[in-house]
């Protein structure tokens, strides 16, 4: 059965709403761990990249470099990130996550995971959990597709999950 644009739009709306509501519910556990959502996003990008220039980071975050300047300074001062000179471009530097930043990020994730795990355990049946895990694979594919589309490449065609 072919998916219509209307079906895709309805699905997109439901996914966005659901993920947004879930995200809002988990936000307090991250704030208790001492990291704002903006900082968490930046630290997560740096963690995934390994090392990244502020310019590349701004592009990934979809913001201007000036927007990140204060945030990066705070993250560095608080021990989340470190700057090192760029190997080949003396005008630039590279950001990487510190061991303390990695530890704090893991702790923040554990707090959110614990809250979500409790809700899963008390709300869902075993078959629901399997279905939810399959849905996570699909959400990751959508994330990759959106990242590719925002970078200017074509999204992958749908395949069966």
What does this 3D model show about the protein?
With about 160 residues, the protein is mainly α. It folds into two domains: about 20-125, Winged helix-like DNA-binding domain superfamily/Winged helix DNA-binding domain (Arc Repressor Mutant, subunit A, Orthogonal Bundle); about 125-160. Helices cover about 70% and strands about 5% of the residues. It contains six helices and two strands, in the order ααααββαα. The protein has helices spanning about 5-30, 35-50, 55-60, 65-75, 100-125, 125-150; strands spanning about 80-85, 95. The chain has a two-stranded antiparallel ribbon with strand order 1-2. Helix 1 packs across helix 5 (about 100-125) and helix 3 crosses helix 4 (about 65-75). It is globular. Mean pLDDT is about 85; it is low at about 155-160.
